[in-house]
Amino acid sequence: MMIGEIRQSLREIVRSLGFANYQQRYYGLSVSQVHSIIELEIREVMTTQELAIVLLHDKSTVSRMLNGLERDGITTWLPNPNDGRSKLIKLTPKGVELAAKINGIATRQTQRAMDLLNREEKQIVQRGVTLIAKMLVKDIANADLKQPKLKE
Fold first, then answer.
1. CA angle 113-2-126, nearest 5°?
2. How far apart are CA 148 and CA 39, in angstroms?
3. Whole-angstrom Cα distance, residue 23 to residue 34?
4. What pLDDT sits at residue 152?
5. Nearest Cα to 72, choosing from 104, 33, 22?
6. b/e map of 46-82 (b: 16 or more CB within 10 Å)?
7. What is the reported pLDDT for 8?
8. For residue 128, is it within any domain?
9. pTM (2 d.p.)
10. Neighbours of 118 (CB within 10 A)
């Protein structure tokens, strides 16, 4: 498959996942907010720096986003028992409930798509998506090491 075809397929995936109407689909939340909620649900508590690394964002951007989630009652800050200079972020009960709703939407959408495939095709899709994700993460890490940061 040629690079152009791969890029076209990735754009179709992004559109099919609803990024055009993402905020409408996911309760008015941005992509980064949804991903933060999902990561916090998986890990339970994290520092801002840990979340920034996972999301591939800078710490100040993530901190501002988390402050907004806190104002909305979705997250709460806790003292970090291992480092008095940092805080931990955690989902509130409202945040846990929202994470369940978000996961439900995403799971149903993925399940509907996978139901159209036979067992062999499902395994190919799983392997392909996993490989693409690993490749993109590795590429971002390599690019960050090689390229100087542009000043805004």
1. 30
2. 28
3. 9
4. 45
5. 33
6. bbbebbbebbebeeeebbebbeebeebebbbeeeeee
7. 84
8. yes
9. 0.78
10. 8
Q: Amino acid identity of 125? A: V
In a domain, 152, yes or no: no
Tokens coding 88: 């931990």
Among residues 18, 38, 6, 23, the alpha carbon closest in space to that of 102 is found at 38
CB 37 within 8 A of CB 76: no
The secondary structure of residue 19, as a DSSP letter, is: G
Contact status, residue 106 vs residue 42, Cβ threshold 8 Å: no
Whole-number Cα distances in Å, 93 to 90, 96, 111, 117, 125? 10, 5, 26, 36, 34
* 131, pLDDT greater than 80: yes
Question: How far apart are alpha carbons 94 and 27 in whole angstroms?
Answer: 13
Residues 73 and 93 in one domain: yes
Residue 22: which CATH number? Answer: 1.10.10.10
- Residues pairing with 88 in the sheet: 47, 78
Handedness of CA 12, 17, 19, 20 (dihedral sign): positive
Two tokens, residue 40: 């916090």
